[in-house]
Amino acid sequence: MTSTVTADPRVGKSDSGGGRGTGGARRRLPRIPDRIRNGGLPYLLLLPAILLELLVHLIPMIVGIVMSFRQLTQFFISNWGNAPWTGLDNYSVAVDFDAPIGKALLHSFFVTCAFTFFAVGLSWLFGVAAAIMLQENFRGRGVLRAIFLVPYALPVYAAVITWAFMFQRDNGLVNHVLHDQLGITDQPSFWLIGDNSFIALLVVSVWKGWPFALLILMAGLQNIPNELYEAASIDGAGIWQQIRKITLPSLRPVNQVLVLVLFLWTFNDFNTPFVLFGRAAPENADLISLHIYQSSFVTWNFGTGSAMSVLLLLFLLLVTAVYLLLTSRGRKGSGV
Amino acid sequence: MAAPASFVWTRRIILTLLAGFVLLPVYVMVSSSLKPLQDVSGKFQWIPSGLTVRPYFDIWKTVPLAKYFANSLIVAGAATVASVIIAVFSAYAVSRYAFRGKRVFTITVLSTQMFPGILFLLPLFLIYVNIGNSTGIALYGSRGGLILTYLTFSLPFSIWMLIGYFDSIPKDLDEAAKVDGCGPLGALFRVVVPAAVPGIVAVAVYAFMTAWGEVLFASVMTNDTTRTLAVGLQGYATQNDVYWNQVMAASLVVSVPVVAGFLLLQRYLVAGLTAGAVK
To answer: A34-53 and B143-167 helices cross at what angle (nearest 10)?
Structure first.
């Protein structure tokens, strides 16, 4: 079996190239050169994906961009092709940081940046700690790994609704522990409105997000060759040194992808604040996705909502491009 | 070589803390789902004073949970099947053939994956309304329309993961199959797909889980008859009271299928991620 596998491709290639094989009737038919045959086939295979990409991504994106230049209020929803053209008006409203709408957008942007920074940082930290601690075999390792992946598997709304219950002021677990049992707070606090909402959102987001970091990092750890550790332990390096000198540096390429993915997911997250707070988040936890949703579907100001979406898109493209540029340069420089 | 005591103790502490953090809401969900209403309305109790299974019977009557369940199953299932099948073809093309436009295609797929759903929500909403007005086809509010919006996230992810997975399968295998008389599609279905089963399972599990938990499109694009669990669970909050015990029971019921499926298949998911995403 293996010998035919290695020998046959060469025969196949010379056949299709020359087209004058010694074989049966089928081979004597005029052969279409591989190059042209391949030319059509990949496109045929891609056709469903291309059509759907057009339908769900490209056309909506074009519609979104066009709508951001129009005055799209609720009166024009069923007839949006006729919404009056307003040029850059929606954009100037969105970025007029002295007026209420622009001010709120800017605030939401900064909240999202701060939130993303802490949520990604903590998720990564928890993930890397657990991945390293789970690397070696010990009793209960499989069970722990399964437990840790539960938040990842739970449907967002079921998990977040449970957190919303825990953060209830009068009947929630959090206030019961902090106020009744530990006596840390003077009186039961509000968690889902006011200043504390940022903390509540952060806790839920990290709880839900860190198992993904663990999953990716566990996969990354499997790719580190065992010889590295063996060589290091022969040289007398302890386990802490091995972690610092081998494990963490080897995870660098994985970390670069992971941090980018975590950033995009956290920055774009809609589900968590929506289930935790409802259609309008408290000011301190007003993430950008929910903010745009609220500007569009609650206040029915779709034109400004579209402009905000386009601005968000430009921002994400910029950050991703800069990040990819920096990390690829870093990779070249360090020789990884 | 046994790990030193300092490492073992650090490991014990860190893993215990993380397990506590992870399991806390699970405990709240399970214990509260077994409490009578007056207990979940008053101060939280670590140990329930009276156990009852009534919430598990009431959840089906307070809201039409079975209908929401069926809607979620249809929408998430159809989105998963559609995106995996389409992704298998396109990932095969990208992984095995050189053609003009390949880079444009892969970059488009990769970049749409990073866009927030909110970006597509409004345009898709407008397009659906427009199609409904001009042709009478009711995409807005229909299950078919919702399935289509779910492809905005499940399709690019599936394509991207499967490209990575197919790349990790030696090309010699399907070259050999072609020499043995298989056409390109024969090679795909007889060699590449069977060899990629773990990757395909991983992608399907992931796509289904994401669709099962989706909130944004579900909250705008559904109506009374097509509502999914993501929106339907909000029905346990009435004007006077939130039936927290029923909310927790319903949350548990809708979670058990996906969590069980995930834990059974997680080995494939790690294998799929190793080959696909982490390289």
So the answer is: 140
Q: What is the mean pLDDT of residues B81-85?
A: 96
Q: Which of A135, A150, A90 is nearest to A246 (CA)?
A: A135
Nearest chain B residue (CA) to A82: B130
* Contact by Cβ (8 Å): A262, A255: no
Asked if residues A288 and A102 have their Cβ atoms less than 8 Å apart, the reply is no
Residue A11 has pLDDT above 60, yes or no: no
Cβ neighbours around A34 below 10 Å, total: 12
Burial B65-96 (b: 16+ CB within 10 A, else e): bebbbebbebbbebbbebbbebbbbbbbbbbb
Cβ contacts of B212 on chain A, cutoff 8 Å? 155
Where is mean pLDDT largest: A34-43, A114-123, A278-287? Answer: A114-123
What are the beta bridge partners of residue B222? B141
Query: Rounded CA gap, B207 and B88, in Å?
Result: 14
A118 close to A203: Cβ distance less than 8 angstroms: no
Structure tokens at A29: 């038919």
Residue B170 near residue B179 (C-beta atoms within 8 A): no
Identify from B10, B68, B148, B179 which residue to disrupt to test chain A contact, counting A C-beta atoms within 10 A and taking the largest count.
Answer: B179
| Rounded Cα–Cα distance for residues A167 and A127 (Å) | 24
pTM here is 0.88
Q: For A116-163, how does the pLDDT look when each residue is reduced to its tens digit (9 = 90+)? A: 999 999 999 999 999 999 988 899 998 999 999 999 999 999 999 999
Q: A35 pLDDT band (50/70/90 cuts)?
A: low
What does the block give as tokens for A40?
């059509």
Angle at B131 between CA B130 and CA B137, to 5 degrees: 140
Nearest CA in chain A to B185: A45
Q: Which residues of A163-182 are buried (b: 16+ CB within 10 A; e: fewer)?
A: bbbbbbeebbbbbbebbeee
pLDDT for A37: 54
The sign of the dihedral angle between the CA atoms of A187, A189, A195, A201 is positive
Interchain contact, A52 vs B22, CB within 8 Å: no
The ipTM (two decimal places) reads 0.91
SS3 labels along A162-183: HHHHHCCCCCCHHHHHHHHHCC
pLDDT tens for A182-219 read 988 888 889 998 889 999 999 999 999 999 999 999 98
Q: Give the Cα separation of B106 and B164 in Å (integer).
A: 11
Which H or E element spans position A133? helix A100-133
Is the CB of residue B180 less than 8 Å away from at least one CB of chain A? yes
Does the pLDDT value for residue A57 go beyond 50? yes
The tally of CA atoms less than 13 A away on the side-chain side of residue A10 is 4
Question: What is the structure's pLDDT at A4?
Answer: 37
